[in-house]
Amino acid sequence: MGRAFVYVILGGGVAAGYAALEFTRRGVNPGELCIISEEPVAPYERPALSKGYLLPEDPPRLPSFHTCVGAGEEKLTPKWYKEHGIELVLGTRVKSADVRRMTLLTVAGETISYKTLIIATGARALKLEEFGVHGSDAENVCYLRDLADATRIVDVMQSCSGGKAVVIGGGYIGMECAASLVINRINVTMVFPEEQCMARLFTPKIASYYEEYYKSKGVEFVKGTVLTSFKFDSEGRVTAVNLRDGKQLPADMVVVGIGIRPNTSLFEGQLTLEKGGIKVNGRLQSSNSSVYAVGDVAAFPVKLFGEIRRLEHVDAARKSARHAVAAIMNPNETDEFDYLPFFYSRVFTLSWQFYGDNVGEVVHFGDYSGKTFGAFWVFKGHLVGSFLEGGSKEEYEALAKATRLKPAIEDLSELERHGLSFALAVSKVPPPLPPSNASVSGIVLERQLHAWHATAGVILAASVAAFAYWYGRRRRRW
Ligand SMILES: Cc1cc2nc3c(=O)[nH]c(=O)nc-3n(C[C@H](O)[C@H](O)[C@H](O)COP(=O)(O)OP(=O)(O)OC[C@H]3O[C@@H](n4cnc5c(N)ncnc54)[C@H](O)[C@@H]3O)c2cc1C
Fold first, then answer.
1. Which of 53, 72, 366, 420 qualifies as a FRET site for 146, CA 20 to 30 Å off?
2. What is the arrangement of strands in the sheet containing 342-347, beginning at the earlier edge strand?
3. What is the best residue among 9, 10, 14, 315 to mutate for testing ligand 1's pocket, by most ligand atoms within 8 Å of CB?
4. Which residues form the Monodehydroascorbate reductase 3-like C-terminal domain (predicted)?
5. What are the residues whose beta carbons fall under 8 Å from the beta carbon of 50, sequence distance 6 or more?
6. Pocket test for ligand 1, best of 92, 95, 267, 313 (most atoms within 8 A of CB)
């Protein structure tokens, strides 16, 4: 038994939804596209699961957060897929893939063949068992990756209102879940091995702000240690967690957020892997030209940093998916993917955004005892990363633009003094005009454009410094 499609998307998460929308915009014909997903529902905005979905009052439920509402686009309900002739094969896991024969085999025994495959299998939550701790399957131990996990957390939270939760892990899942548990009137202790929360991104100063805020909401932190085992009652429910430092923390429920692992196993030995993901080029195309990879599972070249990266964030999933579809449907008009890494989080009434890369020297700015503050990262004399808490739409946009421009930074203390105004000033610098005598001959024009871009970069670096200096002086006079 089998079916054949021109395009198959394997995985039905964020990237799949955005890819489907892009396919329809680029004129896919009814019956040509199929999405296969292990989840029983159409693609949805996964970040909602650790935010609104866990709230005690008026929590959003499907269909309200199907993709692509997170980017302010259409909401793709199951009806939408039907109307566009897109086959949704839900609740179906693919158990093997053969990229040479261009086929996928589902657990139900169906063979689905494709001409072009987009791998959008995302990632799965790391389990405690992978670190030698047993008991993850206890009914009050929760993970959070998909809708079923989130629904389970809601049920467990409701069964232990006023009780104690231990959150294992200080990354964004741990931080967002801890905030939601507190809002649900559960007493939270967070446990993680690092000296601070969000250790992969935050500086100690930034982390300290959020930790103090969490403490003001009643959250306790146990740092520098890990969970080694659970204590169970006679019914197999966890009643406490044992830590490596000898402490025992009583628990009515446990939420584990210790990282993710990309779902690459179907393609190991068939496609080139890098950075734990499927290696793709600037067109999101893997080592097999009929196979593309997008979202959390893809390791793609980040032009801005001249490196292959695998990102685990929703904006990258949305944009890489769209770019892959553009490269498939309109190859001659599609350039290389040129992506500025962007992550965000929202907890309690706090909200932050990060752009670029967190390497090099750090310059903090703003009021760390107030509501708006941030940091810049400067590497090899250029601004490469920016973080902002409590910014406005205009400020976040300015931060993104400034980070993408990678302006030259000569004086870190000046940058610290100007802080956010530096990004606002840089983002307003007009790009230099292209030369007026550009030839209409394709080759010459292309060469001139390259030269123009290179010159523009140099002029921009210089004008950025001059403009920021002027802007700073003007502000100081006011
Ligand atoms: C709770 C939560 C909160 C988040 N919050 C944020 C946030 O605030 N900001 C941010 O930037 N990012 C956030 N993220 C990350 C973001 O959601 C991911 O980067 C994004 O979902 C990646 O999209 P994807 O399509 O690559 O993978 P996914 O959305 O994970 O989708 C993968 C899909 O593939 C399916 N699949 C996998 N293997 C198979 C198979 N063999 N057969 C069939 N189907 C298969 C899965 O079931 C799933 O449906 C959050 C993630 C989670 C879990």
1. 72
2. 342-347, 350-356, 382-389, 373-379, 361-366
3. 14
4. 340-423
5. 144, 150, 172, 173, 176, 177, 180
6. 313
Q: Where are the alpha helices (DSSP H) in 217-313?
A: none
Helix (H) or strand (E) holding 223: strand 220-223
Give the atom of ligand 1 at the shortest distance from the alpha carbon of 295: 26
Of ligand 1's atoms, which has the minimum distance to the CA of residue 16?
Answer: 25
Q: Whose CA is nearest to atom 4 of ligand 1?
A: 47
Q: Does the CB atom of residue 301 touch ligand 1 within 6 A?
A: no
Taking the complete model, does pTM exceed 0.70, yes or no? Answer: yes
| Residue 280: closest CA among 149, 431, 119 | 119
Residues linked to residue 141 through DSSP beta bridges, in sequence order: 254
Atom of ligand 1 nearest to the CA of 46: 17
Q: Is the CB of 357 under 6 A from ligand 1?
A: no
Measured between alpha carbons, how far apart are the two ends of the chain, in Å?
A: 76
Query: What kind and span of H or E run contains 229?
Result: strand 227-232
Per-residue confidence in pLDDT tens, the chain, 478 aa: 699 999 999 999 999 999 999 999 999 999 999 999 999 999 999 999 999 999 999 999 999 999 999 999 999 999 999 999 999 999 999 999 999 999 999 999 999 999 999 999 999 999 999 999 999 999 999 999 999 999 999 999 999 989 999 999 999 999 999 999 999 999 999 999 999 999 999 999 999 999 999 999 999 999 999 999 999 999 999 999 999 999 999 999 999 999 999 999 999 999 999 999 999 999 999 999 999 999 999 999 999 999 999 999 999 999 999 999 999 999 999 999 999 999 999 999 999 999 999 999 999 999 999 999 999 999 999 999 999 999 999 999 999 999 999 999 999 999 999 999 999 999 987 765 554 443 333 333 233 333 333 333 443 444 455 445 444 444 332 2
What architecture is the 128-258 domain classified under in CATH? 3-Layer(bba) Sandwich (3.50)
The domain 349-428 belongs to what CATH superfamily?
Answer: FAD/NAD-linked reductase, C-terminal dimerisation domain (3.30.390.30)
Q: Where in the chain is the domain with CATH 3.50.50.60?
A: 2-124+261-329, 128-258
Spacing, Cα 141 to ligand 1 middle (Å): 20
Report the nearest atom of ligand 1 relative to the CA of 146. Answer: 53
CB 327, CB 334: distance < 8 Å: yes
CATH architecture of 2-124+261-329: 3-Layer(bba) Sandwich (3.50)
The residue whose C-alpha atom lies closest to atom 6 belonging to ligand 1 is 47
Query: Please, where in the chain does CATH 3.30.390.30 lie?
Result: 349-428
Ligand 1 centroid to 391 CA: how many Å?
26
